[in-house]
Amino acid sequence: MGNNVFKDTWLMTVRNIKTTIRNPFSFIPNLIISAFFLLVYEGGLSGISQLPTFEGADYLAFILPVSIVSAAIGGAGGAGQSIVKDIETGFFSRLLLTPASRLAIVLGPIIAGMLQLLVQTLLIIGMAFLLGLNVKTGFAGVLFVLLIAIGWGLAFAGYSVGIALRTRNAQAAQAGTFIFFPLIFLSTTFVPLELIEAQWLKIAATINPTTYVFESMRTALIDGWVFWDLMQGVIAIVIVCAITITFAAVSAKGAVSRK
Question: The organism sits in which domain of life (predicted)?
């Protein structure tokens, strides 16, 4: 049974990757937007790094996680869109009639979305290096940032797939993904937490898991191997993944039972 699940998951993942490659406009706009965030924010707000609170930190390294997380949201949304497309074309119903693992049918789009995110993140980090990015922790720090990005993308992908399975509607699935974009801006997006003056925004940033993902990446990029600061992002990802993947699994059972 275990081997069948792995084989089915592999086949479903490859299928979704091929579908994405055949339709590059499904991910190119998201990549462009993420690159736009990096260029505009670094160019227009880099003077903030002269404030004493930044302690001379590179603003490019500070703002880079924002571009990566925005890519994670867009990339994860593609997983849900893939499910919806299969539902609307009737392919999802045909899949349920095959011996294919139900878990694989759900995991395939999620893993494909994560791999898409990995490529996008590599391109964004490559652009950052061209702009002069300096990583305090070196190559190992870049790998850590990639792992955090993939983990956060997994969390969003689980939610996106869950919404897609429940609504079976492309517009609803897309709208469900967009509600995560405010999480980026209700966080330490442009300045550290201590520089946020509005009390309501500071409270929102404190309870926002995106804040800890940002801080974890920024620690690896700017401060070095500060264990607890790095682990806060990991813990936030584990908690959110547990919630969203469970949501996707429950939604998948509901989708199967409706057949």
Answer: Bacteria
* 3-class SS of residue 162: helix
Q: Tell me the pLDDT band of 192, cut-offs 50, 70 and 90.
A: confident
Quote the Cα angle for 166-157-61, to 5°: 150
Which residue reads 């084989």 in tokens?
A: 7
How much is the average pLDDT of 237-251?
86
CB atoms within 10 A of CB 194: 9
Residues 78-133 pLDDT 10s: 667 777 777 777 777 787 777 777 777 777 888 887 788 888 888 889 989 998 88
Sign of CA dihedral 101, 103, 106, 107: negative
Q: Which of 73, 75, 82 is nearest to 165 (CA)?
A: 82
- DSSP string across 214-226: HHHHHIIIII---
Domains of the chain, by residue range, sit at: 2-257
H or E segment and range at residue 247? helix 227-257
Check: CB of residue 137 under 8 Å from CB of residue 144.
yes
Contacts of 151 (CB under 8 A, 6+ apart): 234, 237, 238, 241
Q: What is the rounded CA–CA span in Å between residue 103 and residue 165?
A: 13
